[in-house]
Specification:
The protein contains 11 helices and 10 strands. The chain is an alpha/beta fold. The chain has an 8-stranded parallel β-barrel, surrounded by 9 helices. The protein is globular and about 85 Å long. It binds ligand PBG. Ligand PBG binds near residues 137, 175 and 230.
Length: about 325
């Protein structure tokens, strides 16, 4: 004979999960449009938006469409965009000369966006990879077996000043050269741009998940420079303590915001960084993270909207104050 099984429990955590209202009352992490920064790809000309093969729903935009997209994002409550230029391969050379052209694509894009949507925060990458024919983030030694750290930093500091001059709110060194944050800060200050901030890619890992981004900006031939790997400047995915070393250096050198990249596979790093600094912490949900979710959704294996939300919620819960994500617009629209 079965007798009803009864537990004599003082604590029943499920009480707080019984209804949607109760669950909402005790929710610890909430996403809002202001958490997001939208990365946008910019191209020359007025051709219709060109979808990136490995990033469904992400387009390379000519300036008129870029401006339209920025207006739409700001209207949806997304406070910031990060601009990435895709250059005509003919303009690339080993020295990344176009990075110092005062009228280069990304600078024209910044001016157009700041003019049209002055309140939108505009962020630009400080790194040479969109400009170099070899796809590396810096200039190379004569033997092509290393990036020349200090010479690269000199170029990056000038690049940052040009971006400040064009009106960006934050420059974002994403190159991982040693000492670049300090050099950029000093160069900005010397040129009078004390209000231009630095969003430092502090703990940037050498990730295989950057693939779709390299499609997007055409920097993939980096893999083809046989003598040199980005592993000589981007961090080893095996390392955790080293992230704190990088973050504390960037903070000491003047970073206003520090970043962890990628985000989803590096939640432990985001948490460590959150506990190691009082600066705002940003995290970059990168192209490969976005592509994975879309690919599985296309196959009917995952629910796109729910996975998108959960992936971003996890990044915020881990300790990120700001999230760069290709889902920014869709999320902001979904949260309304
Ligand atoms: C390099 C840079 C990378 C990304 C943005 N800037 C990585 C790289 O090619 O090494 C990747 C972003 C993404 O995958 O979404 N300066």
């Amino acid at each position: 004979m079965e007798t009803a099984f009864k537990l004599d429990l003082l604590h029943r955590p499920r009480r707080l999960r019984r209804t949607a209202t109760r669950r909402a009352m005790v929710e610890e992490t909430v996403l809002r449009p202001a958490d997001f920064i939208a990365p946008l790809f910019v191209v020359e000309g007025k051709a219709p938006p060109d979808e990136i093969r490995s990033m469904p729903g992400v387009f390379r935009l000519g300036l008129p469409d870029l401006v339209k997209e920025c207006r739409a994002l700001f209207k949806l409550g997304v406070p910031a965009v990060a601009l990435f230029p895709k250059l005509d391969p003919k303009l690339k050379d080993p020295e990344g000369t176009q990075a110092l052209n005062e009228d280069t694509l990304v600078l024209r894009a910044v001016r157009a966006v700041k003019k049209a949507v002055p309140e939108l925060v505009v962020i630009t990458d400080v790194a040479l990879d969109p400009y170099t024919s070899h796809g590396h983030d810096g200039v190379l030694t004569p033997a092509q077996d290393d990036v020349e750290n200090d010479r690269t930093v000199g170029i990056l500091a000038r690049m940052a000043v040009l971006q400040a001059q064009a009106g960006v709110d934050f420059v974002a060194p994403s190159d991982m050269m040693d000492g670049r944050v300090g050099a950029v800060r000093r160069a900005l200050d010397a040129a009078g741009y004390t209000n231009t901030g630095i969003l430092a890619y502090s703990a940037k890992y050498n990730s295989a998940y950057y693939g779709p981004f390299r499609d997007a900006v055409g920097s993939a031939q980096a893999a083809g420079t046989r003598l040199l790997s980005k592993a000589t400047y981007q961090m080893n995915p095996a390392n955790r303590r080293e992230a704190i070393t990088e973050v504390l250096l960037d903070e000491a050198e003047g970073a206003d915001i520090v970043m962890v990249k990628p985000a989803g596979m590096y939640l432990d790093i985001i948490r460590d960084v959150r506990e190691a600094t009082r600066r705002p912490v940003a995290a970059y949900q990168i192209s490969g993270e976005y592509a994975q979710i879309h690919a599985a959704a296309r196959l009917g294996w995952l629910d796109l909207a729910r996975c998108r939300h959960e992936s971003l919620l996890a990044i915020k819960r881990a300790g990120a104050d700001l999230i760069l994500t290709y889902f920014a617009k869709d999320m902001a629209a979904a949260l309304r």
